[in-house]
Structures are given as C-alpha cells and as structure tokens.
Amino acid sequence: MNRYILIHRLTGPAILLLLGTVALLHQAHVVRWTIFVPLLLILIGVIKLAERAVLAGQPLPPVGQYPADPNQAGPYAGSPYAGAQYQGWQYPGTQYSATPQPAASTQAVAPTSIESPAHDFGNDPEGGK
C-alpha cells in the first residue's frame, strides 16, 4: 500500500485517540478540555508534514506515460466494449452552413397594444379569493 494513503487513513483514528486521551486525563483532573484544540491542531500539522515528506520521497512518473490524445489510445485493457472511437458530438437534425441565413419572420414577438385582462378581480363578487 502507498505510504501516503496509509498516513492519510490514520488521520481519523489518531484524532479519536487524542480525543479519548484528553477525555481520560480530564476525568482524572489532570488537564482541562481547553487543551484539546491546540493538541488537535498540532496533531493535524504533524500528519500533514508526514504526508508531504512521503510525497517528496516518491519519484515522479516518467514523462510521456500518458497518451497525448485519449481518443487515439483505444479502449483500456480489459474493457468489455471495443466499439468505434469517439467522433465528436453531432447534434441530430442540424445542418450548419458557412453563410448565415436571414431571419424567417420580421414580425414583432411582443404584442403592440396592451389588451385588457381576461378577468378583472376588482369586480369579482368573491373579491379575488
């Protein structure tokens, strides 16, 4: 297992261990609860430093390990589907031309005159309820 992953997975149990230790010492009247937050910050800092040290010790992956175009690489090993390569998105039913087409209609979309509403709630016997 990768050392970075191991240290990262030990973060939660280390915090629980710190919490239990502080609770036990608080029951014995040795420390107060206010010590927990500074110790927690120190613990998280030490764990982050250990993760960084592990990452700094690992070699970088070789250059050119990954293909430049994932579409040219083909399906991955063990893939049950070995179909056609991705050809790009084609919108169904659309044809694009090089010259822009004029608008189909020049009529205004909004009405030119304001019409009265179909129902006037002011004259409603129920008062619009």
Structure description:
With 129 residues, the chain is an all-alpha fold. Helices cover 36% and strands 0% of the residues. It has three helices and no strands. It has helices at residues 3-9, 11-27, 36-57. The chain is flat. The mean pLDDT is 74.
Put the structure in a nutshell.
With 129 residues, the protein is mostly helical. It has helices at residues 3-9, 11-27, 36-57.
Helix/strand layout:
Blueprint: H1 3-9, H2 11-27, H3 36-57
Helix pairs in contact: 1-3, 2-3
Name the poorly predicted regions: none
Measured distance between first and last alpha carbons: 70 Å
The largest pleated sheet is described as: none
Relative helix content: 25-40%
How does the overall form come out from the CA principal axes? Answer: flat
Secondary-structure class: mainly alpha
- Determine Rg (CA atoms, Å): 34 Å
Provide the succession of SSEs.
Answer: HHH
Q: Can you give keywords for this protein?
A:
129 residues; mainly alpha; 3 helices
